[in-house]
Amino acid sequence: MDPLSALRDFTIRSELDKVTQTGDEILFGSDYTFPSSIETAYRSKQGNLYTLQTVVYFIKHYNLKHTDYIQRARSNKLPAVTLPDRKPLYEYLTGVTDSADQIETVIANDHVLNDGKIVETDGGGDDLELDDISLIRACERPLKDREALLECKGIDFYSVLVSSTRREEERQRIESQQRKDGLVAKNRLMGVDERGIGYGGGGGGGGGGAGDEAYEANPKPKLLQLKSGKIGEGVPIILVPSASQTLITIYNVKEFLEDGVYIPTDVKVKNMNGMRPECVTVQKKFSRDRDQVVKAYEVRDKPSTMKSEDWDRVVAVFVLGKEWQFKEWPFKDHVEIFNKRIVTWGSME
């Protein structure tokens, strides 16, 4: 039975309440299942065939005024039955007439039911031609969708979840370590002079009051204090080249200055999973008479982001030997830089 005949049969039997739409299919109780977009045999006077979804919506809302029906159909994004087709289509579906000029005889086809059974339809109209694509689409039913594939047995996404979780944990660990390094440096920088230079004595001067204290066999490091009161202000800055082919970079400068150990840049980049630090805090211990002083420095490789007050805190520079390294620096030329700052150029022997 074709879709239009099935709808007429249910309308005459007053069983339109059993005609429901589920997804892209229209169910006729437990008897028939058709795609909602399948074309029926009723051709409008404009020349196109009405789809089953359009005809079902029309017959269920026939009691509405035509203007109200059109507005509702548009709100549901459905094509509407035109006014000239309204009366003859209604009379055919309700059984007032047995036929209509707009009805085209279709080749019988098998339709799959929602319970998996197949209903054989009548074989009338074998001498008529019908679009092959329409016949194929009338028989098609989706077997699997994306959700069904994800729920298939034997598929395990646990490894993907574990890999994603590990990457996120590693990123958080690196960020936490960077925050910890910065916090340690700030906690140790309390009350040095503007250049960050201080001695671990009790008074405010360079070692003043140290002679009044008893000598300790194992002197403990004393924390430096900033007189300015702002945390981080006055921390000395060391600049390194931003190029990765230099010996000393932002990646390996910490081990080099603190422990005197050189680690190639490519090894450090691999260990850090490509994470590039914006600033590295280097801590160094100095012996001043009977006291040990913990000194901290900021190491940066992006001079373009520095402010004028930051340049006043630059105490040393690692140079690459290339002129482009000093571009946008607040100095006339490299000679002035070498005269005003401690400059180091390294090479591998």
UniProtKB/TrEMBL annotation:
<dbReference type="Pfam" id="PF05179">
    <property type="entry name" value="CDC73_C"/>
</dbReference>
<dbReference type="GO" id="GO:0016593">
    <property type="term" value="C:Cdc73/Paf1 complex"/>
</dbReference>
<feature type="domain" description="Paf1 complex subunit Cdc73 N-terminal">
    <location>
        <begin position="2"/>
        <end position="104"/>
    </location>
</feature>
<dbReference type="InterPro" id="IPR038103">
    <property type="entry name" value="CDC73_C_sf"/>
</dbReference>
<dbReference type="InterPro" id="IPR007852">
    <property type="entry name" value="Cdc73/Parafibromin"/>
</dbReference>
<keyword id="KW-0805">Transcription regulation</keyword>
<feature type="domain" description="Cell division control protein 73 C-terminal">
    <location>
        <begin position="235"/>
        <end position="340"/>
    </location>
</feature>
<keyword id="KW-0539">Nucleus</keyword>
<dbReference type="InterPro" id="IPR031336">
    <property type="entry name" value="CDC73_C"/>
</dbReference>
<dbReference type="InterPro" id="IPR032041">
    <property type="entry name" value="Cdc73_N"/>
</dbReference>
<comment type="similarity">
    <text>Belongs to the CDC73 family.</text>
</comment>
<dbReference type="GO" id="GO:0006368">
    <property type="term" value="P:transcription elongation by RNA polymerase II"/>
</dbReference>
<protein>
    <recommendedName>
        <fullName>Paf1 complex subunit Cdc73 N-terminal domain-containing protein</fullName>
    </recommendedName>
</protein>
<dbReference type="Pfam" id="PF16050">
    <property type="entry name" value="CDC73_N"/>
</dbReference>
<keyword id="KW-0804">Transcription</keyword>
